[in-house]
Amino acid sequence: MKERIYYNDSFKQEFKADIIDYFKEDDKYHIQLNKTAFYPEGGGQPADHGWIGESNISHVYEEDGKIFHIGDKLPAKKSGLSCKINWERRFDLMQQHSGQHLLSAVAEDLYQAETVGFHLGESNLTIDTDIKLSQEKIEEIETKCNQLIYENRDISVEYPGGLEDDTRVIKIAGLDKNLCGGTHLKNTGEIGVISIIDSENYKAGSRLHFISGQRAVKDYRFKNKLTAFLRDRLSVNDQNIKTEIMRLLEDLNNKANTIDKLKGELLRFKEDELIGSAEVIGDYRLIVDSFTDLSFTELRDLASQLVSDNDIIIIFGQQESDTTRMILARSDNIAALNLNPVIQEVMPLLNGNGGGQPDFVQGGGSNPEKLSEAISKAREIIVKSIN
Ligand SMILES: [Zn+2]
C-alpha cells in the first residue's frame, strides 16, 4: 500500500500530495489524497490532525478502503499540496500506542495475563486482562515495562504477506509479536516511561489505566503540584499527608456528631421555652411563633415533638431565603380539629398553597410581608373552632 505513507514510515511529518476527490458535508470538506501520512482512526488509535495546504484537518477516517481527511476549507491548489501532521499529537498517540503494546506484552510474559480488550482514548487509556492481577503484580509489570524502556529494544514492522498485503506484524525485540495497523515508535526508549495510574476489577480480570511518555510527565507534574499543595496546607511532609487527612476526616466526623447532639439539646430548650410561653385556651395550649434560624426539617421535628404531648396546637411560620412556609399541628387527642381547611384558607395570603393530614399540615409561598397576617388569621380560625 504505497499511498499509506504511515505504514512504512510512521515518522513522516510533512509530505506533498494531490487532491483526487472530495465532497462537502455540513460546512466541512472530506478530502481524498493520492497518498497520505495521516493516520485514519482505527485499531484503537485516534486519527491524526494537521494541515493539507491551508485546510485545517480535524479528523481522518477510512471508508471502503478510501481515506478521507475532514478539513475546514478546500485548498485552492489541487496538486503538489504541502501536507503536515500535527506532530505533537501524533507522537503522543504513538507513545501511548507503543506503550500499550509493551504493557500487554509484559503482562503476558510475566503472569500469562492476556489482553482481551484495550482503549486508547485521547485522555483515557486502559487494557483489560483475562485474569485478575494483584497490586503487587501490577507494580512488577510497571517496573518491568520501564526496564525494557531503558534497554531501548527495537520495535519493528514485518510484512508476512509481502508489501502489497495489509497484514502487518509489530515486533518488540525479544518479546512480543502482534498484528496491528497502527503507527509505532522505532524503539522502546521513545516511549519514555509507562505509569499504571489506577486499576480495578473488570469482568473476570483486571482493567489497568496507564499513561506513557510526555503524558506521564505532565501527570507527574500535576501530582507534584497537588502533593505540594496538600503538604503546605496540612503542614506535614509527603509521607504524612495520608495519616493527616485520615485524622482530619475523623475529627470532622466527631465534630459533626457533637453539633448534632448540641442541636438536639438546643431544640429541647426551645420546646420548654415554647411550652412555657403557650397561650392557654380552655383545655388547650396554643403555641404561635415564627422562625428564621431553623431549617424546615428542624421546624417539622420541633412541631412533631411538641404535639406528642396532649392538648397542644402549633402555628409556626418560617422564612428561609425566598420561601415563606407555615406548619400547623395538633395533638392526637384534639381529633375534632381538622387543620386542612385552615391551611387552605390562609396560604393564598402567601401566594402559595398547602395541605397534609388533619393533625399536621404545611404550606409554602412567596410573600413574606403577609406571614404575620397569615399566622393571625390561622389563629383566629383555630380559636373559633375549638371554643
Ligand atoms: Zn500497534
- Say what the CATH topology of the largest domain is: Threonyl-tRNA Synthetase, Chain A, domain 2
CATH architecture field of the largest domain: 2-Layer Sandwich
Structural class: alpha+beta
| Mean pLDDT figure | 94
Number of strands: 20
Outline type: elongated
* Content of β-strand: 25-35%
What distance separates the N and C termini?
A: 100 Å
Main sheet characteristics: 7 strands, antiparallel
Structure ligands? zinc ion
The SSE string, one letter per element, is: HEEEEEEEHEEHEEEEEHHEEHEEHEEH
Count of domain modules: 4
Q: Helix count, per DSSP?
A: 8
What is the top-level CATH class of the largest domain? Answer: Alpha Beta
Brief summary of the model shown:
Helices cover 35% and strands 31% of the residues. The chain has 387 residues and is α+β, with helices and mostly antiparallel strands. It has a seven-stranded antiparallel beta sheet, with no helix packed on it.
Question: How would you describe the overall organization of this protein?
Answer:
Helix content is 35%, strand content 31%. The chain is an alpha+beta fold. The protein has four domains: 5-85, Elongation Factor Tu (Ef-tu), domain 3; 90-232, Threonyl-tRNA Synthetase, Chain A, domain 2 (2-Layer Sandwich); 236-269; 278-386, Diaminopimelate Epimerase, Chain A, domain 1. The longest helix is centred in the C-terminal third of the chain and has 36 residues, at 241-276. The structure holds zinc ion. Residues 97, 101, 170, 180, 182, 184 line the site of zinc ion.
List the helices and strands and how they pair.
Blueprint: H1 5-8, E1 14-17, E2 19-25, E3 28-33, E4 50-52, E5 55-63, E6 66-71, E7 81-85, H2 87-111, E8 115-120, E9 125-129, H3 135-150, E10 155-158, E11 169-172, E12 176-179, E13 194-202, E14 205-212, H4 213-234, H5 241-276, E15 279-281, E16 284-291, H6 296-306, E17 312-320, E18 323-330, H7 340-346, E19 353-357, E20 360-365, H8 371-386
Parallel strand pairs: 16-17
Antiparallel strand pairs: 1-7, 2-3, 3-6, 4-5, 4-7, 5-6, 8-9, 9-14, 10-11, 11-12, 13-14, 15-16, 17-18, 18-20, 19-20
Helix pairs in contact: 2-3, 5-6, 7-8
The structure holds zinc ion.
Zinc ion binds at residues 97, 101, 170, 180, 182, 184.
